[in-house]
């Protein structure tokens, strides 16, 4: 059973996320970020990498894609809020986006 | 901010993959980045492609099997394993090259591929196995330019491109036998490697060495090994030190040793054959001589066949009769292993040697080159063409019988009507003989029977003799020739026939021994013209010249002009 991030931890982590341009979603315990790439190919390459990782982690993002833009929302359904997996995936997503 | 760029994509790290689209590149890269190793990825790709191909094949079977020129990618030949390729870039590169080759002129491509195969001494079998093409079709396409559909050509070119890459790699690899892992599939098919084959360059070197010395020592052999391998490499346009590229055609001391051993055996055999030449050359000119002489060497050759008794007429007939069956068998046995042209043999009184004479088998290569080697040397008769005019007087039974019995009978005698009767219609003939002095008419009648069966048996005879030869072309030529000759010779019989009828009607007593003889003798000398076609049910057009019968000849396969694709409207394109 995935646990929500412990509140105290969250106090550390959220600023970190904010620094990385991950914003908290209003009315919901989730984080959100938008990515923009040069063209569709790059975008989809990024998405493929993320997808592969998501499968590996068994944790999937909510996302929307239009051509070279990707909007990602991360949240854990089981615990109804953020969990460590979201943070991990967010970190990975950030890495993938600059590759 | 959204930039609407075209789909070029950014090339990461320069010109890594020239034929991969940007997205493909991205995806592949993603896959690799996801922890998938290159080998694993390639293996998986191969498996997936194979699965897709077999699924496609199933769909093909269910669907209508029309052969359209399009849909090259719709029905990929599942047999052709173009799947194992190392890097995806190489795969793309090869596919691109194949596409390019497909645009070129098929005949030029065929010539190129054929010469490449000759240069590297590659067997067609290998192509057939890895592409699933039909070998006959492939051979015809490469040698004669017979059209080949695009998809199949694609398979061929793919093999070609792949093979070139393999061989280049072999030549550049330091280690021998590195065949980039694709040999594992081929192992199952042909042991480990292709069968070794001598190249023309090596053979030249070896023959020269053979002239100098027939039995080289180990050192000399090793020297020859080096020389040959160097020559083979040069022939392939490669540096002589890159032996690995020769692959299965690499020359070794063992091979050189075997080559010399085979040549020595071959020469010994040829020498042995030459010893028998004197006999056959004396029999060649005329069969009359053959008939009267019965030299012993021939008997040696016909060991499995019974020997004939010349002295006793009636008994010899029996012998002839009983032996004729075996004789045919023996002759058949003798003749069939020889891959010679039967029509040539039939017409020509030069006889070719049976390959299995004397009980010892000649060395391996002799069998294939026999007609080249011993074409000029006379041999014990393969077939004996008996000219018949001298035999036509049927009353003269002793000569008639002597005709058959005096021959040592290594082989059946074709177109010897007298002998023909003996050989081919034993039963009726024997009856004839018993009654021969008294009833020439019966004889005549039975001789009447015989021609029909003679012809029928004639048809059978070639089959009997040349079971391995190409019957379709040879049989007709044989028949037509036989018919031609039979014409002039059997005219006597047939006119005898008419004369017999005449005699019967006019003189039922049948004492016309002499008249018949006279007539037959007389008729012999006349031209075939007077024969009425009415009585000639057997040969409705026999009196015509050879031009007629020549139209019966089917054109031998070898005469077909090479297929000129330039003149052909290529529907494939």
UniProtKB/TrEMBL annotation, chain A:
NCBIfam families the record matches: PRK00823.1-3 (NF002018)
Pfam families: Pterin_4a
Matches recorded under PANTHER family: PTERIN-4-ALPHA-CARBINOLAMINE DEHYDRATASE
Function of the molecule: Involved in tetrahydrobiopterin biosynthesis. Seems to both prevent the formation of 7-pterins and accelerate the formation of quinonoid-BH2. Coactivator for HNF1A-dependent transcription. Regulates the dimerization of homeodomain protein HNF1A and enhances its transcriptional activity. Also acts as a coactivator for HNF1B-dependent transcription.
Cell compartment(s), UniProt: Cytoplasm; Nucleus
InterPro entries: PCD_sf, Pterin_deHydtase
Catalyzed chemical reaction(s): (4aS,6R)-4a-hydroxy-L-erythro-5,6,7,8-tetrahydrobiopterin = (6R)-L-erythro-6,7-dihydrobiopterin + H2O
UniProt GO MF annotations: 4-alpha-hydroxytetrahydrobiopterin dehydratase activity
Protein name: Pterin-4-alpha-carbinolamine dehydratase
Species annotation: Sinocyclocheilus anshuiensis
Lineage: Eukaryota, Metazoa, Chordata, Craniata, Vertebrata
EC category: lyase
CDD domains from the UniProt entry: PCD_DCoH_subfamily_b (cd00914)
Keyword Lyase annotated: yes
Statement: the UniProt record of this protein carries the keyword Lyase: yes
HAMAP family membership: Pterin_4_alpha
Highest taxon of source: Eukaryota
GO terms classed as biological process: tetrahydrobiopterin biosynthetic process
UniProt-listed Enzyme Commission number(s): 4.2.1.96
A cellular component term, taken from the record's GO annotations: cytoplasm
SUPFAM superfamilies assigned: PCD-like (SSF55248)
Keywords for the protein's UniProt record, in alphabetical order: Acetylation, Activator, Cytoplasm, Lyase, Nucleus, Tetrahydrobiopterin biosynthesis, Transcription, Transcription regulation
Record-stated family: Belongs to the pterin-4-alpha-carbinolamine dehydratase family.
């Amino acid at each position: 059973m995935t646990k929500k991030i412990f509140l105290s931890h969250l106090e550390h982590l959220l600023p970190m996320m904010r620094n990385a341009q991950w914003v908290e979603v209003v009315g919901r315990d989730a984080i959100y970020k938008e990515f923009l790439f040069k063209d569709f190919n790059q975008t989809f390459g990024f998405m493929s990498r993320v997808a592969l990782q998501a499968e590996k982690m068994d944790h999937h993002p909510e996302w929307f894609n239009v051509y070279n833009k990707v909007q990602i929302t991360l949240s854990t359904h089981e615990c109804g809020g953020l969990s460590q997996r979201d943070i991990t995936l967010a970190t990975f997503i950030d890495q993938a986006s600059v590759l | 901010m959204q930039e609407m760029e075209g789909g070029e994509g950014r090339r990461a790290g320069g010109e890594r993959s020239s034929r991969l689209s940007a997205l493909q590149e991205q995806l592949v890269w993603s896959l690799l980045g996801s922890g998938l190793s290159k080998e694993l990825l390639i293996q998986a790709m191969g498996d997936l492609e194979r699965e897709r191909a077999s699924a496609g094949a199933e769909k093909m079977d269910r669907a209508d099997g029309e052969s359209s020129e399009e849909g090259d990618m719709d029905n990929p030949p599942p047999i052709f394993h173009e799947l194992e390729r190392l890097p995806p870039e190489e795969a793309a590169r090869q596919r691109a090259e194949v596409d390019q080759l497909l645009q070129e002129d098929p005949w030029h491509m065929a010539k190129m591929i054929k010469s490449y195969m000759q240069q590297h001494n590659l067997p067609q079998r290998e192509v057939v196995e890895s592409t699933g093409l039909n070998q006959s079709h492939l051979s015809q396409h490469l040698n004669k330019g017979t059209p080949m559909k695009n998809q199949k050509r694609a398979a061929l070119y793919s093999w070609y491109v792949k093979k070139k890459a393999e061989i280049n790699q072999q030549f550049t690899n330091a280690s021998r036998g590195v065949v980039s892992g694709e040999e594992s599939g081929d192992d199952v098919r042909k042991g480990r490697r292709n069968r070794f084959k001598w190249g023309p360059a090596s053979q030249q070197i070896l023959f020269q060495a053979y002239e100098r010395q027939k039995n080289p020592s180990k050192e000399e052999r090793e020297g020859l090994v080096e020389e040959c391998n160097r020559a083979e490499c040069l022939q392939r346009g490669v540096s002589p030190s890159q032996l690995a590229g020769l692959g299965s055609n690499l020359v070794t001391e063992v091979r050189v040793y075997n080559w010399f051993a085979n040549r020595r055996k071959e020469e010994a055999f040829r020498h042995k054959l030459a010893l028998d030449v004197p006999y056959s050359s004396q029999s060649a000119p005329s069969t009359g001589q053959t008939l009267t002489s019965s030299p012993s060497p021939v008997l040696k050759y016909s060991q499995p066949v019974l020997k004939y008794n010349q002295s006793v007429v009636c008994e010899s007939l029996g012998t002839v009769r009983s032996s004729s069956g075996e004789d045919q068998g023996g002759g058949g046995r003798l003749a069939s292993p020889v891959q010679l042209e039967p029509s040539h043999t039939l017409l020509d009184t030069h006889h070719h040697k049976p390959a299995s004479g004397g009980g010892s088998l000649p060395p391996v290569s002799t069998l294939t080159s026999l007609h080249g080697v011993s074409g000029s040397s006379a041999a014990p008769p393969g077939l004996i063409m008996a000219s018949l005019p001298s035999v036509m007087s049927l009353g003269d039974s002793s000569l008639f019988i002597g005709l058959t019995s005096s021959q040592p009978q290594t082989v059946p005698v074709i177109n010897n009507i007298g002998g023909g009767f003996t050989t081919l219609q034993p039963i009726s003939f024997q009856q004839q003989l018993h009654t021969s002095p008294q009833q020439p008419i019966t004889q005549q009648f039975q001789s009447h029977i015989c021609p029909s069966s003679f012809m029928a048996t004639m048809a059978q005879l070639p089959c009997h003799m040349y079971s391995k030869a190409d019957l379709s072309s040879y049989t007709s030529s044989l028949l037509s020739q036989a018919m031609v000759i039979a014409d002039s010779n059997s005219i006597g019989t047939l006119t005898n026939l008419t004369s017999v009828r005449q005699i019967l009607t006019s003189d039922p007593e049948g004492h016309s021994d002499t008249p018949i003889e006279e007539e037959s003798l007389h008729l012999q000398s006349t031209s075939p013209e007077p024969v009425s076609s009415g009585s000639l049910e057997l040969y409705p057009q026999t009196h015509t010249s050879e031009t007629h019968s020549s139209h019966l000849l089917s054109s031998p396969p070898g005469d077909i002009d090479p297929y000129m694709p330039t003149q052909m409207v290529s529907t494939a394109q």
